[in-house]
Amino acid sequence: MPGRLPRAILATLLTSVVAVSLVACTGGDTPSPAPVPSASASPTGVAVPTSGAAPIFVAGGSAAENLPVFDALNNATIASSAASNTTPDGKAFTSALRDGGFDVSAMQVTPDVTTVGVKADTVQFSVALGGQCLIGQYGFGEYHSLVAPLLGTGRCLVGETRTIDW
């Protein structure tokens, strides 16, 4: 029968495609530590208060202990910018974090302008704290944060960052 594959060949091909698809879905051999995402962001990116007390910076505390204040400061920056009909930039986020008690020398922030001179869609910012990183990202109207391990470089962000000199 020209143009038709025998059932045995078709079954073998189908089995091979399924097997290759399943292999492609498996992870690597070495599991990496799972980041601790922030649970405070609502679908609009603004923090949903879980209690009446504002979080307070814990000097000498861990990244996980300071994640609530990190999120609160960043969400306040977003709300303040929204009230003035602007979009927060790296300077706004890092300035608020500095004013909230975080060490500016432990921070990183990505450029607000791309290499072709247009406003970046997202900004990432981080604070190295106790061998871990608080990492925040804002873009497209959404804020996300997590606690992640410090990179082997001693930094939190990969790629180009800018000098925080304000």
Automatic annotation (TrEMBL):
> What InterPro entries does the annotation carry?
DUF6993
In its UniProt entry, the species of origin is given as: Subtercola boreus
Its protein name is DUF6993 domain-containing protein
Signal peptide coordinates: 1-24
Q: Do you know which Pfam families this protein is assigned to?
A: DUF6993
Task: State the superkingdom.
Answer: Bacteria
Q: What is the lineage of its organism?
A: Bacteria, Bacillati, Actinomycetota, Actinomycetes, Micrococcales
> Which intervals hold domain DUF6993?
80-160
Keyword terms, alphabetized: Signal
